[in-house]
Here is the input.
Amino acid sequence: MATTFVIAQGGGPTAVINQTMVGAVLDARKRHPGAHILGARHGVRGIRDGDYVDLSAVPEEQLLRIAGTPSAALGSTRDKPDAAYCDLVLAGLKKQGADAFIYIGGNDTAGTQEILAEAAGGSMAFVHAPKTIDNDLVENDHTPGFISAAEFVAGAFLSVDLDFRALPGIYVGIVMGRHAGFLTAAAAAWRFDEDSGPHLIYVPERAFSVPRFIDDVRATLDKHKRCIVAVSEGVATEDGRPLVESLVPPDRLERDAHGNLKLSGGDLGLAFEQALRDGLPGKRARVDTLGYMPRGNIATISPVDAAEAFEAGAFAVELAGKGGGSVALQFDGKKAVMRGVPLASVAGKTRHMPDDFLLPDGNNLSDAGMAYLKRLAPAKYEVGKPFV
Amino acid sequence: MATTFVIAQGGGPTAVINQTMVGAVLDARKRHPGAHILGARHGVRGIRDGDYVDLSAVPEEQLLRIAGTPSAALGSTRDKPDAAYCDLVLAGLKKQGADAFIYIGGNDTAGTQEILAEAAGGSMAFVHAPKTIDNDLVENDHTPGFISAAEFVAGAFLSVDLDFRALPGIYVGIVMGRHAGFLTAAAAAWRFDEDSGPHLIYVPERAFSVPRFIDDVRATLDKHKRCIVAVSEGVATEDGRPLVESLVPPDRLERDAHGNLKLSGGDLGLAFEQALRDGLPGKRARVDTLGYMPRGNIATISPVDAAEAFEAGAFAVELAGKGGGSVALQFDGKKAVMRGVPLASVAGKTRHMPDDFLLPDGNNLSDAGMAYLKRLAPAKYEVGKPFV
Here is the structure.
């Protein structure tokens, strides 16, 4: 059994990624008294560079305080190691005498673990523990981090909808989500009557068209006297290109080191403002980019999410004892359960919203989509219906 | 004594403006059994148009649910009545046999009440009850609505700061605030150690210069390895013009019916992105407009704010019995107290951040500024210090 653990956190932080880290540390201590537990700073980069914090003896009280704090306490990284980088990471792990490496992250992180496991050839256990606000990991019913982010988005849109009942107009909120629309869809979770917004929801799973968008907004204004729109930063046009690419001058498009287009900055918001100005001149319209607000917000940590994330960490230690794999948060029809699945089944794959979660015309959720959201994020506030 | 009350809500909604409305209704019922209490829909517009909801007999349970719900349940308006409009409003009030009109809003709302009181010549009582997330009413220590919005902003910046400890870079969050920087300053309220962001705070009370901003960011990156910036949408350049005016092409500038420049849309965010791209090329930078998120967010309603807002409504009924005036939330050195002040002392005036709340170089808060924030919004979460 493993007695030296290395733990790291990768990708975009969440509100509960530290729960998973602390869940793993405390479970490893319990199962393996005297275990040596190292936290690598900034993901695989810390392993490559030998930059660790020794978690073996950090007081439990301190760890629990960290567990309740959003974002990655060990730091994170966007590095996607190639073969040469993986060799360095493997050498780093061996140098520490690691028996298991638990890496908390999304599908890229699972991919890194798959490569490392192959290269290590069974000499140590590689475990991927899930986290992502995007909720886009296959094999998972939902992912730790999603519910907290979803509740932020649900509360924000409920609040903005109330605001626009008082002072009518058009509101567009741009929500993180490159390929999967789950977090944007969460805007609808807390609608409380037939009049409630968001009235329109656009996700990357459906082609976006500006003329259709303007028609949709116009029809909504006729019906509701206001129009609340939730849109994913990653919405794409019919030809599969990100909307931002067709709206923004090419010289202003930004890409990261992996060639990923920067999606959600001012450019997309401005493009929406412009489209509304042109398509519905004279209408009061406001566009906000929610940006980083939802992903690790300390005010909206869901206790359910926190508990599941902690459990995922503990389960990762159990999987390490079984040779490794990916922790999957599945649904048994009644409740969420942790299961071990092969790294290869999660690595590099993206889970999209199921087709039947969306209405055919692609601008709203179906009953099935709403049922899924309401199961994960049931209404939290009792709303007094306004008089207008 | 007044037995027919008209109540209305004006200006931008807040998280607790319904507390004030319900506080007034319930107190009027208690002091004046059998009172006729009318809620005007969409502020003075509802009085002008005869559009009311009868609040005399709405069940207390329903009212308390509304009190706990953000935004203006009676609807709001941006109308600033001129003399002719005021005549119509006064006629409308007389038609209802109103003994008192309680109008909940900011300094424009107080201004409307002052004009109406003058025109009515003592025939009925006009009361202004304060609300604004901007915290910019003179005579007030702070205003109902501010603390809830401030806590949203404090939590958002605490969270983003933790995010950027994990994945370093530059973050700029643009916060509502046309003339007063209180809400932007609130970003600093929950800093928990010497390293905490926001590291730079720019408010309308100090002239903003792009080159100095770039220098400030560069110096912060050297010191903290990341840079978190809170900036008011209303920051202005040395010549007193809004920053957005000097950064955005004139044909894209938008103004509302009152000639107020639209400040916080994508344009300003984009301008900051551009400034950072030019001034610090190659640095990871992210700009979010918090926009509507803070102002009536259901997830961050402060119980203190809610209680004070309710009390302000009740006190408005008391003032109505004394001939009218403006409810002021003052500080007696130990606690917040309600006092009545003349409408004229609040109407149309803007309270700015006191000079000594800001450091001389204008990019951060002084100890006095921090003490004020910490008195109103003491730390709410115990943060576990990250390992990076």
Notes: Residues 4-133+300-346 of chain B form a domain with the Rossmann fold fold (CATH 3.40.50.450).
